Amino acid sequence: MLKKSRFIGGALILAAAGILSKIIGMFYRIPLQEIVGNSGLGLYQEVYPLYLTFLILATAGIPVALSRIIAESLAEGKTAEVRQILARSMLMMGIIGVVLFFLLYLSAPLIALFMGNPHLTGPIRAISLSLLFVPLIAVLRGYFSGHQQMIYVGLSQVFEQTLRVAFILIASLYLVSLGEDTDTVITGVNFGTMISTVISLLFLSCLLWLSQRKKQASPSTGDWRSLAWWGDRHFYLAMWRIAWPICISALVIPIFSLVDSFMAINIFRYVWHVDGVTADSWFGIYSRGGSLLQLASLFGASIALSIVPAIAEARRQGDEQRASTLTRLSYRFAWLIGLPAGLGLAAVAEGANLALYGDTDGSLAMAILGISAIPLSLLLATNGILQGIGKEKIPAAHLLWGVIAKAILTLLLASLLGIDGLALSWLGATSFVCMLNMRKIAAFVRVELNVRFDLLYPLLAAGVMTLLAWGVTEFVSTSLSSAALKPRLLGALETVSGVGIGLIVYLSSLLAVPLITHSELEWLPGGAKLSKLMGRLRKR
């Protein structure tokens, strides 16, 4: 049976790795913007959501489906089948990767035409090469997730992101030094992404080998050299039934970003009547908040990946009470962490924008995207809950309604408010899908939520935190405005001060009020020590 600390512990490991990866991915935009400018960054951001969409189609459902199948096999004691499941998954995903690579590579000119920028053909083709390798990476991560070895998943994410950023910066610096145009530079940057995926695949293979050495490998069932061993159609059909709706539902961030990519440039050009370079620059400024949005919603995504094998194991063992407890914990922790993360980002948006990009253009849009992280965190967590209870088609259906809502809101709000309207469309669309998910979960799992304790108290604590964090950033800005500091240094001081005060205030509230119970602390690694600390704080 899954240990109590393992579910939330796995989510915390993935969240920590995700935060580190996003920080690495966020800060590389500073030198990249300096190297290629706002128009180059906008060009890169136009291509990346398209690649991310294909990437998720090739990978997102498999780690979750594989982790669920492996967790169910382990719960039933069928350990001998696990290596066979891994081998068949590698074969299937290798074929899918090749198909998607050719699809994206050959359709690149047509896609670039639809996006209103024929210069995107080269960058799209360069980044399509990564699709040959990332599906295999996804299989290995799903294998580790099924064994609840989240440390390997997190380690591989950080390693891959570090390599990706290094190759992006090296490629951009080298090509700019040769005097190449922006299109060629972004093509080279995307080619660097492919190199990082190859090395990451080798790294994960080494981790798999090391993990197998630490324990006695279970014998494989059957003869791996026979066609029947590889060609079990029941396995592939089961994987397909689980994976395809998960793939669709995992497209929340990239497909909403893709709506922006297809619609925003055209809205800027034909509604706001600006030229192509200005439209790319506006989109580059708006895109500054994208990585921060993902950063603030990471814990929700981590819960989604960690909850699926945990709930699948509980339901396979007939433990509905445990499934209900896991569902409530998912709600609670997604809200307790997503709420301060989103509001905190909104509070320090101006300082963070100044620190990262050297000016405050688009700060309001960044703050709105920060608030959007709150419903997005809950949306991702509820996706995982529905997938864990075997209702993986429901999030996929809800996403389709979300895309319609996002397109309508983007057309309306971006036409009226520009990049601020684009950010507001995220807030509206993610809130809509989140409410659809929560309504469906209530029909399948009995979850008892206390409105005052679970909703209002955390909201009050996060609100106080936000006001104090914003007040500190304004105080630092006013106090140091005459100190002749460089803009980025001033922005960094504002951000660090605001984040520091916000963390102190919210964490104190979390333990002292308390916003988290002693029984819930038992689900955290080191929860017993935290429980004693909370008790001492309450006495004082």
Summarize the structure.
With 540 residues, the chain is mostly helical. Helix content is 83%, strand content 0%. Helix 2 (29-59) packs across helix 8, helix 2 packs across helix 12 (252-270) and helix 21 runs antiparallel to helix 22 (487-512).
Q: How would you sum up this structure, described in words?
A:
With 540 residues, the protein is mostly helical. It has two domains: 4-214 and 232-449, no CATH class; 454-540, no CATH class. Helices cover 83% and strands 0% of the residues. The chain is built from 24 helices and no strands. The protein has helices at 4-27, 29-59, 61-75, 82-106, 108-114, 121-128, 134-146, 150-177, 182-214, 227-230, 233-249, 252-270, 276-286, 288-296, 298-316, 320-347, 349-357, 363-388, 393-417, 419-444, 451-480, 487-512, 518-521, 527-539. The longest helix has 33 residues, at 182-214. The chain is globular and about 65 Å long. The relative contact order is 0.11.
Helix content: over 70%
Number of strands: 0
The total count of helices amounts to: 24
Q: What's the mean pLDDT score?
A: 80
**Element-level helix/strand string:** HHHHHHHHHHHHHHHHHHHHHHHH
What distance separates the N and C termini?
A: 38 Å
Task: Summarize the helices and strands and which ones pair or pack.
Blueprint: H1 4-27, H2 29-59, H3 61-75, H4 82-106, H5 108-114, H6 121-128, H7 134-146, H8 150-177, H9 182-214, H10 227-230, H11 233-249, H12 252-270, H13 276-286, H14 288-296, H15 298-316, H16 320-347, H17 349-357, H18 363-388, H19 393-417, H20 419-444, H21 451-480, H22 487-512, H23 518-521, H24 527-539
Helix pairs in contact: 1-8, 1-14, 1-15, 2-6, 2-8, 2-9, 2-12, 2-13, 3-4, 3-7, 3-11, 3-15, 4-6, 4-7, 5-6, 6-9, 7-8, 7-9, 8-9, 11-19, 12-13, 12-19, 12-20, 13-20, 14-18, 15-16, 15-18, 16-18, 16-21, 16-22, 17-22, 18-20, 19-20, 21-22
